[in-house]
Amino acid sequence: MSDYILENLEHYFKMYNKSVRSPKKFWSQIADENFTWCQKWDKVLEYDMQEAQFKWFLNAKVNITNNCLDRHLANSGDKTAIIFEPNDPKEEAQHITYNELYVRVSKMANVLKDQGIQKGDRVCIYLPMIPELAVSVLACARIGAIHSVVFAGFSATAVSSRINDSSCKMVITSDGSYRGSKAIDLKGIVDEALENSPSVEKVLVVQRTGTKVNMKEGRDIWLKPLLDAALANNVAQVMDAEDPLFILYTSGSTGKPKGMVHTTAGYMVQTAYSFKNVFNYQQNDVYWCTADIGWITGHSYILYGPLLNGATTIIFEGVPSYPDFSRFWQIIEKHKVNQFYTAPTAIRALAKESLDFIQPYSLESLKVIGSVGEPINEEAWHWYNTHVGGKRCPVVDTWWQTETGSIMISPISFVTPTKPTYASLPLPGIQPVLMDELKNEIQGNQVTGSLCIKFPWPSMARTIWGDHQRYKETYFTAFPGKYFTGDGALRDEVGYYRITGRVDDVIIVSGHNLGTAPIEDAINEHPAVAESAIVGFPHDIKGNALYGYVILKEVGEALNQGNLAKEINQLISDQIGPIAKLDKIQFVSGLPKTRSGKIMRRILRKIAEGDFSNFGDITTLLNPEIVEEIKNGKV
Ligand code: WT7
């Protein structure tokens, strides 16, 4: 029995205990047995929690694309690596084999080199969810260029600031993109961004929509002719274990986005290991993660994790609501998807729709269903388990972060018994702890606290690009000697973790420390309520009072808002106490959210305070138009 694959609960505990007793031995065995190295390491780990310095697999040499591509060719060259499912269901899907992907990545790698990109250069990739996005990412990794993928829904300002922060030399984009019924002029956005981004020398343009674009002489080049002329093989650049693989920007609670830097070997080892075990991927399975490659979920669990395991992974260009709300279910049936991984925000949106959208489709192929991005509430968990998983698929509620690189706390499919709303147990190699306000580690079970990780793990971000001080201060100072996640969690009677939400989402009302999450849970139990968010606003007597934004399941119910408000406060009063009652309730049709589904409480807080200035760049939101509606409806 290979210890790489966790077979049952007993095996999990054996490996977990081993990983805590001797983490270096644990990780070095996994790294040793399951990857192709140009040269092995001479030391597993060197670290300093105070200074936030981490090095894994010191002096090892490797290229991650050798492990994603080349090593699969001998036995699985004809296996499908990527299934591309276009936005428009009438457009044919593409099946790209490992052989074909190898050729496409090699050609692209050669093009990048010809265009002057060298090891260590930063390349901004601003593409829709099309195969060229995967190919571009892998081609960068092939030659040692550092990819910085920017989600193709971000505005010119957001693109420009990300390009400038890491002074990218090149942008890879497309003429346009399709998302639902809309076509977006990506090239136009890049042109605007580049007015303020002088570091960019070349722009490679993929043709996707065929819309007319401006091509700036000497800067912009159509990609297709370059690829056609390029050689079909490429020898991968030998990378040091700690050479940066990519930068990915994540929004901080204040200020400019943080360019999280991930390095090569540790990221490779842990994304591969976690993918295989959490999803129980088997040789001929078809795996689908609905995230965008512009986020860490897409990096680790659409591309690297699956390809490292020789999996078949779906890239879906569209959205769950186009042409209608059956799109996800139709794709699962069409490609006989075995593992499906999505976000609570998508689950809630789909659960709001009629079951008529889901029932005509066979979801029999599914074996495992997963969730990521925010706490999944009880109602959504049960809906997902019942209507998507048919109560036979483990629901893997995976907790992790852009910063952690890989899944940290999650059930292992068919190994860890699941419990609704619980991310359950840490993966082997991960040592979570709960901390109290006095910065002491909380022992025992049935406790709550701030979630920290007390020992380094291979796929952790190494720094914030250009600002190591900020990295240190954000993650390693609140609880000295530990990595602070920013999340709160509880540990139940058997040691299962439930992530309760960001601990900065805490409001002090009349001296009482109120977490937003339990209050929102109480509100959401009202049968008329679909979703809610609460924030604090200044109050003469209480210090802060609570302002609730509530989305109703049916708009007609807004008619008796007065009664509803009373009932909602009664629920809160019953479940948490009168102290947590809302002073103000505003019924809204949506909440401002980030692309990963997180509520932008900062904006809601400002509106509740009556301060309509400086919302920041709201174009990066999933639904920027909602801000105007909420402003106008302020109570
Ligand atoms: C934050 C990280 C990790 C990829 C997607 C988001 C929240 C994430 C869960 C979960 C409860 C979760 C946390 C975390 N979160 N997964 N299963 N249960 N909360 O990446 O944008 O870096 O956000 O998302 O608050 O800190 P991210």
Low-pLDDT ranges: none
Count of DSSP strands: 30
Task: Note the beta-strand portion.
Answer: 15-25%
Radius of gyration: 24 Å
Structural class: alpha/beta
What sort of overall outline do the alpha carbons produce when their principal axes are compared? globular
* Strand arrangement in the largest pleated sheet: 12-11-8-6-7-14-15-23
> Could you tell me how far the N terminus lies from the C terminus, measured between alpha carbons in angstroms?
63 Å
Small ligands present: 5'-O-[(S)-butoxy(hydroxy)phosphoryl]adenosine
Mean pLDDT score, rounded? 94
Number of helices: 18
The profile of the biggest β sheet is: 8 strands, mixed
Helix content: 25-40%
Textual characterization of the structure:
The model has no long low-confidence stretch (mean pLDDT 94). Strands 12-11-8-6-7-14-15-23 form an 8-stranded mixed sheet, sandwiched between helices. Strand 18, helix 12 and strand 19 (368-371) form a beta-alpha-beta unit. The termini are far apart. The longest helix is centred in the N-terminal third of the chain and has 17 residues, at 98-114. The protein has 18 helices and 30 strands. The chain has 635 residues and is α/β, with parallel strands linked by helices. Helix 3 (64-76) packs across helix 10 and helix 9 (264-279) packs across helix 10. Bound molecules: 5'-O-[(S)-butoxy(hydroxy)phosphoryl]adenosine (WT7). 5'-O-[(S)-butoxy(hydroxy)phosphoryl]adenosine (WT7) is lined by residues 250, 296-297, 372-375, 397-402, 423, 485-487, 499, 502, 596.
